[in-house]
Amino acid sequence: MNALEVKELHTYYGKSHILDGVGLHVAQGELVTLLGRNGAGKSTTLRSIVGLTPARSGSVTVFGKDTTHWPPYRIAGLGVGFVPEGRRIFANLTVDENLKVPVERPGPWNIGRIYQLFPRLAERKGNKGRQLSGGEQEMLAIARTLLLNPSLLLLDEPSQGLAPLIVQEVFRVITATRDEGTSVLLIEQNVRAAVEVADRAYVLDDGSIVYEGLASEFARDEERVRALAGASAEKWSEEEVGDASVQAAPGMG
């Protein structure tokens, strides 16, 4: 049984046809990335899956249950965690207080383990959300969702606006989550980083899936990667991460 199965999704904003027959699946314990240029429909796909922007037609199945017309809270109750674009942490609460907002569910993740996974958050546990860098806020947003011990984790652009060194740290955490057995669907603009950690990749273009296959195979198609990644097509290498970390050190975000 797949953790997530999406078939022939058609989603509209008013009269604008945003998703045109989108189909994808995530197996249990698999990390899948959905790639595409800005405006391709990636975020709308996630919003349709979690019920925030319901599809007009098509189907969404989560752990064998048809959730197409369910409200978001019922979908979350199946063990679906959603980290939206923009982080949306509580700016006036401390890191520790932010982590105590979710009602913990049984599973491997608790606040103690979160601080082991995110040493940077442990160092700043008394800082308010607004005092954190962009990278720390993203870590906190992911950490807060992990405390729900989701069986399926959906992430929308977790690397957006982050320095390369912090991107590497965020993706390390995403991989660790998958290694714990959580199924992951990752929406990402950083093509290089995404295909390094993902098992499979989909590419969305103008509301339709135009590629499906192993992430490693997609990564080897240099022309396709560069066409999709545009200005972000630089090698995501240790050397460049090191160089960028020196430049980004003061802000760390």
Automatic annotation (TrEMBL):
Q: Which UniProt keywords apply?
A: Amino-acid transport, ATP-binding, Cell membrane, Membrane, Nucleotide-binding, Transport
Indicate the family of this protein.
Belongs to the ABC transporter superfamily.
Which terms in the Gene Ontology molecular function aspect does this entry carry?
ATP binding; ATP hydrolysis activity; branched-chain amino acid transmembrane transporter activity
CDD domains recorded for this chain? Answer: ABC_TM1139_LivF_branched (cd03224)
Q: Which Pfam families match?
A: ABC_tran
Family matches, as PANTHER family: ABC TRANSPORTER ATP-BINDING PROTEIN, HIGH-AFFINITY BRANCHED-CHAIN AMINO ACID TRANSPORT ATP-BINDING PROTEIN LIVF
**What organism is recorded for this protein?**
Allopusillimonas soli
- Give the highest taxon in the source lineage: Bacteria
> What residues does the ABC transporter domain cover?
4-231
Transmembrane segments in this chain: where?
Answer: none
Q: Which SMART domains match?
A: AAA
| Gene Ontology biological-process entries | L-amino acid transport
This chain belongs to which protein, by name?
Answer: ABC transporter ATP-binding protein
